[in-house]
Specification:
GO molecular function: phosphoribosylaminoimidazolesuccinocarboxamide synthase activity
Distance between the termini: 23 Å
Family: Belongs to the SAICAR synthetase family.
Bound molecules: cytidine-5'-monophosphate
Low-confidence stretches: none
Radius of gyration: 17 Å
Domain SAICAR synthetase/ADE2 N-terminal: 7-231
Largest sheet: 7 strands, antiparallel
CATH topology of the largest domain: D-amino Acid Aminotransferase, Chain A, domain 1
Organism: Dorea acetigenes
Number of helices: 6
Structural class: alpha+beta
Number of strands: 14
Keywords: ATP-binding, Ligase, Nucleotide-binding, Purine biosynthesis
Helix content: 25-40%
Order of helices and strands: EEEEEHEEEEHEEHHEEEHH
Shape: globular
Mean pLDDT: 98
Length: 235
C-alpha cells in the first residue's frame, strides 16, 4: 500500500491518501492535547501504543460482531483503514463516575454506576464538543434514528467486550469514548480505543493508567501507557 499525499492532520494523527479511494493510512503521533487543545504536550511512545492497541482491540471487536474500519497494520505507527465520513458525535459510555460526569452531577469519582450510561457530544471544537441527546442530534442532521439505534447497539457491545478484555489484564474500564463512520451506507467503528480515549484504573489499587495522568499533571504518563500495553500482552 502506497502512502500518497496528506489529507488531514488532527491532534493525535495524520491521515494520508492511498491509490485506493476507499482506503486511507492513519499515522499516530506522540502529540497529546487536553481541554479542547488548551493543554499541549508529548507522550513519548504513545503513537505506537495507541496504534497497536487500537488494532488489536478492533480485531477482537470484529470477531464479536462489531464492524470496524481496520484493514491492515502497516508499521508500529501506521495502519490502513477504510475511508469513512465520521458521524459528528463522540459516543461516551460510563461504568463508574469520573471526569465531566462527576463534575456535572456532583457524584464522587469512583462511584460505581447501577447501569452503564450512554452520552453523545456534538463534535465541534469551536463549541467545545457540547453534550447533546439523540433527539437533538437527529434534529440538527448530525445523525438519523436508524444510525443512532445501530450506534447504540454496537456501543453497548463494545462496552461488554472491553470490560472483560481489560478485567483479564487487571484493569477496570471506568469510561470511554468512541466514534463511528459511514462506509458505503453502513455505520462502522472508527478512530481509536486507547489510554487516550478510555479511563483505565488498576483493579486493586485504582491507580490511573490513562490520559488523566497527563490532563491532571500526575506524572509517569509514559509509564502508565506502557503498563497498559504490557498487561494486555500484545505480541
Ligand atoms: O471528560 P469526560 O469525563 O466527559 O470523558 C469521558 C471519557 O471520554 C474519558 O474516557 C475520556 O478520555 C474520553 N474522551 C475522549 N475525547 C474527548 C472527550 C472525552 O476520548 N474529546
Amino acid at each position: 500500500m502506497q502512502k500518497l499525499e496528506q489529507m488531514y492532520e488532527g491532534k493525535a494523527k495524520k491521515v494520508f491518501k492511498t491509490e485506493d479511494p476507499d482506503i486511507v493510512i492513519v499515522d499516530y503521533k506522540d502529540d497529546a492535547t487536553a481541554f479542547n487543545g488548551e493543554k499541549k504536550g508529548t507522550i513519548v511512545g504513545k503513537g505506537v501504543i495507541n496504534n497497536r492497541m487500537t488494532n488489536y482491540i478492533f480485531q477482537i471487536l470484529e470477531k464479536e460482531g462489531v464492524p470496524t474500519h481496520f484493514v491492515e497494520e502497516l508499521s508500529d505507527r501506521e495502519t490502513a483503514v477504510k475511508k469513512v465520513d465520521i458521524v459528528p458525535l463522540e459516543v461516551i459510555v460510563r461504568n463508574v463516575a469520573a471526569g465531566s460526569f462527576s463534575k456535572r452531577l456532583g457524584i464522587e469519582e469512583g462511584t460505581s454506576l447501577i447501569a452503564p450510561t450512554l452520552e453523545f457530544s456534538y463534535k465541534d471544537d469551536d463549541l467545545g464538543d457540547p453534550l447533546i441527546n439523540d433527539y437533538m442530534a437527529i434534529a440538527i442532521g448530525a445523525s438519523t434514528r436508524e444510525e443512532i439505534n445501530k450506534i447504540t447497539e454496537y456501543t453497548f457491545k463494545v462496552n461488554e467486550v472491553l470490560k472483560k478484555f481489560f478485567k483479564e489484564a487487571g484493569i477496570e474500564l471506568i469510561d470511554f469514548k468512541i466514534e463511528f463512520g459511514r462506509y458505503h451506507g453502513e455505520v462502522i467503528l472508527a478512530d481509536e480505543i486507547s489510554p487516550d480515549t478510555c479511563r483505565l484504573w488498576d483493579i486493586e489499587t485504582h491507580e490511573k493508567l490513562d490520559k488523566d495522568r497527563f490532563r491532571r499533571d500526575m506524572g509517569n504518563v509514559e509509564g502508565a501507557y506502557q503498563e497498559v500495553f504490557r498487561r494486555i500482552g500484545i505480541k
